[in-house]
Automatic annotation (TrEMBL), chain A:
<dbReference type="GO" id="GO:0016020">
    <property type="term" value="C:membrane"/>
</dbReference>
<dbReference type="InterPro" id="IPR051474">
    <property type="entry name" value="Anti-sigma-K/W_factor"/>
</dbReference>
<dbReference type="InterPro" id="IPR041916">
    <property type="entry name" value="Anti_sigma_zinc_sf"/>
</dbReference>
<keyword id="KW-0472">Membrane</keyword>
<dbReference type="GO" id="GO:0016989">
    <property type="term" value="F:sigma factor antagonist activity"/>
</dbReference>
<keyword id="KW-0812">Transmembrane</keyword>
<dbReference type="GO" id="GO:0006417">
    <property type="term" value="P:regulation of translation"/>
</dbReference>
<keyword id="KW-1133">Transmembrane helix</keyword>
<protein>
    <submittedName>
        <fullName>Transmembrane transcriptional regulator (Anti-sigma factor RsiW)</fullName>
    </submittedName>
</protein>
Automatic annotation (TrEMBL), chain B:
<keyword id="KW-0731">Sigma factor</keyword>
<dbReference type="InterPro" id="IPR014284">
    <property type="entry name" value="RNA_pol_sigma-70_dom"/>
</dbReference>
<dbReference type="GO" id="GO:0006352">
    <property type="term" value="P:DNA-templated transcription initiation"/>
</dbReference>
<keyword id="KW-0804">Transcription</keyword>
<comment type="similarity">
    <text>Belongs to the sigma-70 factor family. ECF subfamily.</text>
</comment>
<dbReference type="Pfam" id="PF08281">
    <property type="entry name" value="Sigma70_r4_2"/>
</dbReference>
<dbReference type="Pfam" id="PF04542">
    <property type="entry name" value="Sigma70_r2"/>
</dbReference>
<dbReference type="InterPro" id="IPR036388">
    <property type="entry name" value="WH-like_DNA-bd_sf"/>
</dbReference>
<dbReference type="GO" id="GO:0016987">
    <property type="term" value="F:sigma factor activity"/>
</dbReference>
Amino acid sequence: MSGDDETLLLLSAYADGELSPGEVLAMERRLAAEPGLRDTAERLRGLSGALRETLAQVPVPENLRGHVIGRIGFADPATRRGWLGSWQALAATLLLGLAGGAAIGGGAVYQDRPEDAMLRTAVLAGHLRGLAAPQPFDIASADGHVVKPWFNGRTTIAPDAPDLAEQGFPLVGGRVDIVAGSPVPTLVYRRDRHVISVTVVPASGDAPTDEERRDGSTIERWTQGDLTYWAVSDLNTRDMRRFADLFRSRTGRPG
Amino acid sequence: MTGVTATAPSTTPSTAPSTLARARFSQLVLPRLDEGYRLAHWLTGNPTDAEDVMQEACLRAYRGIEGFAEGNARAWFLTIVRNTGYSWLQRHRPRAVIFAEDLAADARTALETGGVLIQAPETPEAALIARDDAGQLARAIDALPVAFRETLVLREYHGLSYREIAEVTGVPIGTVMSRLGRARQHLLALLAKDR
């Protein structure tokens, strides 16, 4: 194995956080001294990001869960006796999932009022501007109890910022967006390398729950109480729905 | 790990799975279908076979669920999917399993010509380019020998630690480290060549 080969192995394990403390020290010393090595480290990081996306892009068949449950329900003769009970339990789980999906997906044919279309455009513009800026937030904090009060005095709404880090959606901060001429709060979450903006505006009328894809971004909208939430990201639809579901379940009763 | 290699379906009704087994299956396996499916997909290379592998893996998991005591349910289930995928490969693509560990050839050429270590720094833009070339990257992953491919998927997609990957794939941690490093080296060299 050549020296370069070994260096790449070490660097790759370093990027994975799998080196011993002594090896980490040695590697960090080398990284500080060798610009070429830093470049390679950067390229490894870029590769990992691209890999994560590519690997996760494989679409899962929608009926997989149903097939698995069906297969198990029928394949095992022993389940026949207690068939009804188990089947119902499993089917209920399945149905819940379907209903959840339908509740969000059902509004796919959205009936936008003119002011909704304007809102949607403004919210998307805020998200894209955030991505174009050096960082997508004005205040960086993973703590909802820091982000929420930061909005006081800046916007008329100070939304709850639920902690979804354990579910893979860490809060990274907040920013002020301008929607319909007024400053409104936007919470910023992350999923791997994707940024999710959640812009919160006062609810007007009975805005439906819906979802739209536009220019590679997914926009989820829902209303809870007197607030309407717009979540925007280039995440895949499945993760986006999961995020919206989680967020809603943490901010009160589903609207 | 008991139950993982169990293949013969039990035909006697006397081995009635308890309500507990069903509850545990719903709790431990059903939430992991998506990630299991993606592992099966990257192992077999196509959706139809991936679904077959998943069906069988889930059946095995169901039968073995009472033997799974406590611990890492995720690694346990991924091990079953992985082993089922390997059995499938052995039946249908025996040559894929007999892999040659000659991955480094390409990468070494790149090293000798100054490929990997003398590249422009990776930037967020480059990551975007990589994303646009997702099809190309996917093909490059597919072309990796299966041992490298599964290690890469378990690390980059499933986010398992080296120790967990070693358990799932049944090799020493050092082998996990070297497979990962070499797979990445290979992919970096490929991407650099096409730029």
